[in-house]
Amino acid sequence: MHIATRRLIPAYAKARYGREALPNLIDAKVGVGSNETATAELRGLLGDDFADLARRMRPKPVSLLTYLIETVCGPDDWVLDFFAGSGVTGQAVLEGNARAGIRRRFILVQSPQPTGRADCPTIAEIARRRLAAVVARLGVDASEAGAYGLVKLEGAAEAPNRRTKSTSRR
Ligand SMILES: C[S@@+](CC[C@H](N)C(=O)[O-])C[C@H]1O[C@@H](n2cnc3c(N)ncnc32)[C@H](O)[C@@H]1O
Fold first, then answer.
1. Which domain, by its residues, includes 39?
2. How far is the CA of 25 from the centre of ligand 1 (A)?
3. Lower CB density within 10 Å: C or N end of the chain?
4. Is 160 contained in some domain?
């Protein structure tokens, strides 16, 4: 079908779009889950005791990260998530590797933002627990170099609480 454009360049609309044409809106039609799915996933890995924290963290669903990673990454790529939160990106990479028999690697960075829980004091600890649960579920040998390692940066500052209102104005 021809569509007149202001620049008089013939254009056409495809009846079906290929994988290279990403949708404007990533929603259930793309096959990814919701925030509710994501909360249930995190709760399922960490246990019911973490239900409230899992809800408050507003994690992303694994299917969303899987979709994004599969769309842009090759089988040997590294995936960097500089605001890792509960570590869902790491889960998507680990599960994708297990499914496809490939070896993408990932780096997750997360500040020690407090959770308010003495038994699991930081968001970074949530991510660590999520990855440990995923590795255990997949049966990946965590002692192998291919699993994952943890590095704590000396002097890493706690991220400011996002709910804290700034008193300074310009
Ligand atoms: C919304 S979470 C990421 C959620 C993650 N995709 C998931 O599904 O769990 C983003 C995290 O990035 C961190 N973050 C956001 N802005 C930051 C900043 N300016 N400096 C350091 N950390 C930040 C916060 O600690 C927060 O936990």
1. 27-138
2. 22
3. C
4. no
Q: Is 33 in the pocket of ligand 1 (CB under 6 A)?
A: no
Overall domain count for the chain: 1
Q: Write the residue with the smallest CA distance to atom 3 of ligand 1.
A: 85
User: Of 44, 134, 22, which is closest to residue 87 (Cα–Cα)?
Assistant: 134
Q: Which tens digits make up the pLDDT trace of 61-73?
A: 999 999 999 999 9
CA of 59 to the centre of ligand 1 (A): 10
Whether 161 maps to a domain, the answer reads no
Does ligand 1 lie within 6 Å of residue 60's CB atom?
yes
Residue of the CA atom closest to atom 20 of ligand 1:
159
Residue 132 lies in a domain: yes
Ligand 1 pocket, 96 CB below 6 A? no
What one-letter code names the amino acid at 52?
D
Read off the pLDDT of residues 114-146 as tens digits, 9 standing for 90 and up: 999 999 999 999 999 999 999 999 987 666 545
Contacts of 125 (CB under 8 A, 6+ apart): 115
Q: Is residue 90 included in any domain, yes or no?
A: yes
Q: How far apart are CA 135 and CA 151, in angstroms?
A: 17
